[in-house]
Specification:
Blueprint: H1 11-33, H2 37-41, E1 44-51, E2 57-59, H3 61-73, E3 80-92, E4 95-105, E5 117-127, E6 130-141
Parallel strand pairs: 1-6
Antiparallel strand pairs: 1-2, 3-4, 4-5, 5-6
Length: 149
């Protein structure tokens, strides 16, 4: 197995990577809304670092998963969100920074106007053909207007 980063040969290759990252975010959103920590955390690298909305740093998959299980079964058990990708910037072909807006929703998926949302940044790495969250931070923001809605 080579550690050599992938080289993009065309715009189509780059678009495939963008689509794969967007699909990962869709799966993360679905797992959050199902309150399924194991499904959510399958998208995190084993050595990931995560800083949650209250500023707690979690290190490694196990600690992230234990924390997600506790909060998704506890204080966030009735919380739902819609994730939108604001930007994807490739640092190199196998590393990307992704900004994600998270809007609070009802269990039916309707955005809660003036609800407390957040803005997250994910540092994603492509490992064995799969995009994973290697690091991230989630920050609370008050205003949660969605353009076009």
């Amino acid at each position: 197995m080579s550690n050599k980063p992938e080289v993009y040969n065309s715009r189509e290759d780059r678009q495939e990577e963008i689509n794969a990252i967007r699909q990962t975010i869709i799966e993360i959103e679905a797992a959050f809304n199902q309150h399924d920590a194991d499904e959510l955390d399958r998208h995190f690298a084993q050595n990931a670092i995560w800083v949650n909305v209250v500023g707690v740093q979690l290190s490694g998959w196990k600690q992230i998963n234990e924390t997600h299980k506790a909060i998704l079964e506890g204080p966030l058990r009735n919380s739902y969100a819609r994730y939108t990708v604001d930007s994807i910037i490739f640092v190199r072909p196998d590393v990307a920074t992704v900004h994600i807006r998270q809007y609070p929703t009802t269990s039916e998926g309707k955005i809660i106007e003036n609800g407390q949302g957040s803005l997250a940044i994910y540092v994603m790495v492509k490992e064995q053909g799969t995009w994973m969250v290697a690091a991230g931070q989630n920050t609370i923001v008050q205003e949660t207007h969605v353009s076009g809605e």
